[in-house]
């Protein structure tokens, strides 16, 4: 059973004050793009995982792997006596890049194992399991464009029209999400102490201008409204990202934003040809490790091959 699952870009990421449980309340606009991992599961006596492709060497293959956790939690929820399965992850989504690659692999594993084991769990039940694994997992299950609240796991489909073309610039090294949030908190506290903003941030709010622009389907309206509260923290940890963002803007990107906790920079283009031009320019400028072009929105985790029925 093979499932294809997309990366995500955050069109908006608004972050509130850290809560007592260590999490930050979020409002985010998720957007699934056509950069995919594929996860294949095969019945086995033991639970194992192997990883190939982009960043494979840095992906754990023990019980800390989110795909392994997904298979285990699904087996528990379905009342299975064993979670025996061989998981093969073929990666194109970079690791620790702000694109939710690990969460995508967990979502794909839930869909694949749910089918392989004939557990019959509903999409809502898979989403509930996914939310316990990671805040981005429920979105990876559905894809498209959606508003996330809470930790990002409370989803509402967005009324978005049209399709969008992107150039994605991958950083030289990954960024730890925990480190980015810690830096975000430190910077916010420093600004509060300096009187630049209140020490306690109000609950984050959805950008209604962005939602109106998405409903119009006009990328020229969407581009200037891309925003990420974590971007200053990512830039603080990797100052070279400023050069990356500047290079994309200089070559006509309608919008430029660090995706999630970074370091991937996402550039919204006018059309496919413009996305290609931006990608070539970024490569030539030498401001990133690699560049990919993608479109969105795309569907979430989807079965693409059933080996048993082939």
Query: Poorly predicted ranges (pLDDT <50, ≥5 residues)?
Result: none
Classify the secondary structure makeup into a structural class: alpha+beta
Order of helices and strands: EEEHEHHHEEEHHHEHHEEHEE
Distance N terminus to C terminus?
10 Å
Largest sheet: 8 strands, mixed
Summed up, the domain count is 2
What is the CATH class designation of the largest domain?
Answer: Alpha Beta
Query: What is the number of E strands?
Result: 12
CATH architecture of the largest domain: 2-Layer Sandwich
Helix-residue proportion: 25-40%
CATH topological fold name of the largest domain:
Ribosomal Protein S5, domain 2
Q: Beta-strand percentage?
A: 25-35%
Number of H- or I-type helical stretches: 10
Shape: globular
Mean pLDDT: 93
Radius of gyration: 19 Å
């Amino acid at each position: 059973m093979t499932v294809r699952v997309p990366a995500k870009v955050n069109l908006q990421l608004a972050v509130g004050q850290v809560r007592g449980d260590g999490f930050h309340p979020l409002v985010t606009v998720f957007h699934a793009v056509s950069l995919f991992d594929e996860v294949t599961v095969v019945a086995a006596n033991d639970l194992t995982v192997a990883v190939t492709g982009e960043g494979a060497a840095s992906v754990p293959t023990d019980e800390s792997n989110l795909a392994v956790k997904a298979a285990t939690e699904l087996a528990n929820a379905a009342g299975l006596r064993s979670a025996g399965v061989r998981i093969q992850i073929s990666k194109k989504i970079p690791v620790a890049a702000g694109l939710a690659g690990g969460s995508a692999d967990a979502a794909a594993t839930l869909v694949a194992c749910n089918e392989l084991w004939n557990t019959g769990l509903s999409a809502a039940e898979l989403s509930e399991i996914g939310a316990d694994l990671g805040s981005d997992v429920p979105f990876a299950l559905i894809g498209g464009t959606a508003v996330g609240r809470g930790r990002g796991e409370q989803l509402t489909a967005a009324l978005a029209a049209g399709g969008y073309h992107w150039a994605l610039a991958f950083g030289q090294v990954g960024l730890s999400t925990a480190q980015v949030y810690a830096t975000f908190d430190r910077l916010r506290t420093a600004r509060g102490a300096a009187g630049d903003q209140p020490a306690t941030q109000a609950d984050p709010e959805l950008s209604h201008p962005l939602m109106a622009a998405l409903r119009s389907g006009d990328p020229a309206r969407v581009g200037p409204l891309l925003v990420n509260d974590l971007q200053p923290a990512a830039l603080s940890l990797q100052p070279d990202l400023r050069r990356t963002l500047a290079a994309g803007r200089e070559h006509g990107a309608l919008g430029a934003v660090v995706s999630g906790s970074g370091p991937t920079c996402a550039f919204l283009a006018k059309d496919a040809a413009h996305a290609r031009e931006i990608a070539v320019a970024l490569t030539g400028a030498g401001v990133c490790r690699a560049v990919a072009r993608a479109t969105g929105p795309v569907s979430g985790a989807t079965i693409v091959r059933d080996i048993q029925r082939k």
